[in-house]
Amino acid sequence: MNVLAYVFYLLITYVITVRTGLVFYRNGKVYIKAVLKGDEQLTDFINKMLLTGYYLVNLGYAATMIRWWKSIESFSALLSTVGVMTGRIMLTLALIHFFNMAVIYFISRSNNHLINHTT
Protein backbone atom coordinates (compact mmCIF):
# COMPACT_ATOMS: atom_id res chain seq x y z
CA MET A 1 0.00 0.00 0.00
CA ASN A 2 2.98 2.31 0.53
CA VAL A 3 3.85 2.22 -3.17
CA LEU A 4 0.34 3.40 -4.06
CA ALA A 5 0.64 6.21 -1.50
CA TYR A 6 4.02 7.22 -2.93
CA VAL A 7 2.60 7.39 -6.44
CA PHE A 8 -0.41 9.49 -5.36
CA TYR A 9 1.75 11.76 -3.23
CA LEU A 10 4.42 12.32 -5.87
CA LEU A 11 1.83 12.98 -8.60
CA ILE A 12 -0.08 15.45 -6.44
CA THR A 13 3.13 17.14 -5.35
CA TYR A 14 4.43 17.34 -8.90
CA VAL A 15 1.23 18.94 -10.19
CA ILE A 16 1.00 21.43 -7.32
CA THR A 17 4.69 22.35 -7.57
CA VAL A 18 4.74 22.79 -11.34
CA ARG A 19 1.45 24.70 -11.55
CA THR A 20 2.38 26.99 -8.66
CA GLY A 21 5.88 27.51 -10.05
CA LEU A 22 4.50 28.58 -13.43
CA VAL A 23 2.11 31.04 -11.78
CA PHE A 24 4.98 32.52 -9.75
CA TYR A 25 7.15 32.63 -12.86
CA ARG A 26 4.59 34.47 -14.99
CA ASN A 27 3.36 36.88 -12.33
CA GLY A 28 6.65 37.43 -10.51
CA LYS A 29 8.39 38.80 -13.58
CA VAL A 30 6.72 42.19 -13.07
CA TYR A 31 8.15 42.55 -9.56
CA ILE A 32 11.63 41.43 -10.51
CA LYS A 33 11.64 43.74 -13.51
CA ALA A 34 10.65 46.68 -11.29
CA VAL A 35 13.48 45.93 -8.86
CA LEU A 36 15.95 45.68 -11.74
CA LYS A 37 14.78 48.97 -13.26
CA GLY A 38 13.40 47.39 -16.42
CA ASP A 39 16.41 45.23 -17.35
CA GLU A 40 14.53 42.61 -19.39
CA GLN A 41 17.44 40.24 -19.99
CA LEU A 42 18.52 40.11 -16.33
CA THR A 43 14.88 39.82 -15.24
CA ASP A 44 14.37 36.76 -17.46
CA PHE A 45 17.60 35.19 -16.22
CA ILE A 46 16.80 35.69 -12.54
CA ASN A 47 13.19 34.58 -13.00
CA LYS A 48 14.32 31.34 -14.68
CA MET A 49 16.89 30.70 -11.96
CA LEU A 50 14.26 31.24 -9.26
CA LEU A 51 11.91 28.81 -11.02
CA THR A 52 14.63 26.18 -11.35
CA GLY A 53 15.63 26.52 -7.70
CA TYR A 54 12.00 26.41 -6.65
CA TYR A 55 11.44 23.15 -8.53
CA LEU A 56 14.62 21.55 -7.20
CA VAL A 57 13.94 22.47 -3.58
CA ASN A 58 10.29 21.41 -3.58
CA LEU A 59 10.56 18.22 -5.60
CA GLY A 60 13.70 17.20 -3.72
CA TYR A 61 11.99 17.87 -0.40
CA ALA A 62 8.94 15.90 -1.52
CA ALA A 63 11.06 12.93 -2.56
CA THR A 64 13.06 12.85 0.67
CA MET A 65 9.91 13.07 2.83
CA ILE A 66 8.97 9.57 1.67
CA ARG A 67 11.90 8.21 3.65
CA TRP A 68 10.14 8.93 6.97
CA TRP A 69 6.83 7.33 6.13
CA LYS A 70 5.68 4.42 8.25
CA SER A 71 4.04 1.35 6.80
CA ILE A 72 0.56 2.10 5.51
CA GLU A 73 -1.93 -0.68 6.24
CA SER A 74 -5.30 0.75 5.19
CA PHE A 75 -6.90 3.08 2.68
CA SER A 76 -7.76 5.59 5.42
CA ALA A 77 -4.11 5.61 6.55
CA LEU A 78 -3.11 6.14 2.92
CA LEU A 79 -5.41 9.16 2.58
CA SER A 80 -4.29 10.57 5.92
CA THR A 81 -0.59 10.19 5.15
CA VAL A 82 -0.87 11.61 1.64
CA GLY A 83 -2.96 14.51 2.98
CA VAL A 84 -0.49 15.39 5.72
CA MET A 85 2.51 15.12 3.44
CA THR A 86 0.82 17.17 0.70
CA GLY A 87 -0.04 19.81 3.30
CA ARG A 88 3.63 20.00 4.29
CA ILE A 89 4.62 20.56 0.68
CA MET A 90 2.00 23.29 0.31
CA LEU A 91 3.27 25.01 3.46
CA THR A 92 6.80 24.80 2.11
CA LEU A 93 5.67 26.38 -1.16
CA ALA A 94 3.97 29.19 0.74
CA LEU A 95 7.04 29.86 2.89
CA ILE A 96 9.34 29.98 -0.12
CA HIS A 97 6.93 32.32 -1.90
CA PHE A 98 6.68 34.70 1.05
CA PHE A 99 10.44 34.64 1.55
CA ASN A 100 11.01 35.52 -2.13
CA MET A 101 8.42 38.28 -1.97
CA ALA A 102 10.06 39.70 1.17
CA VAL A 103 13.46 39.71 -0.54
CA ILE A 104 12.01 41.48 -3.59
CA TYR A 105 10.24 43.99 -1.33
CA PHE A 106 13.37 44.78 0.68
CA ILE A 107 15.53 45.09 -2.43
CA SER A 108 13.03 47.46 -4.06
CA ARG A 109 12.77 49.46 -0.86
CA SER A 110 16.54 49.66 -0.61
CA ASN A 111 16.75 50.78 -4.25
CA ASN A 112 14.12 53.49 -3.66
CA HIS A 113 15.94 54.64 -0.53
CA LEU A 114 19.19 54.98 -2.47
CA ILE A 115 17.47 56.85 -5.32
CA ASN A 116 15.75 59.29 -2.94
CA HIS A 117 19.03 60.12 -1.18
CA THR A 118 20.99 60.71 -4.38
CA THR A 119 18.50 63.13 -5.96
Please specify the SSE layout and strand pairing.
Layout (H helix, E strand, L loop, with lengths): L1 H34 L4 H26 L9 H44 L1
Outline the structure in words:
The chain is mainly alpha-helical and 119 residues long. Helices cover 87% and strands 0% of the residues. It is built from three helices and no strands. It has one domain. The radius of gyration is 19 Å and the shape is elongated.
Short summary:
The protein has 119 residues and is mainly α.
Question: Which structural class best describes the helix and strand composition?
Answer: mainly alpha
The geometry reads as elongated
> Helicity, in percent?
over 70%
Beta-strand fraction estimate: under 5%
Cα-based radius of gyration, to the nearest Å: 19 Å
Largest sheet: none
- Average pLDDT number: 86
SS field, number of helical segments: 3
> How far apart are the first and last residues' alpha carbons, in Å?
66 Å
For the secondary structure, the number of strands is 0
Number of separate domains? 1
Low-confidence runs of at least 5 consecutive residues: none
One letter per element, helices H and strands E, the order comes to HHH
Which keywords apply here?
119 residues; mainly alpha; 3 helices
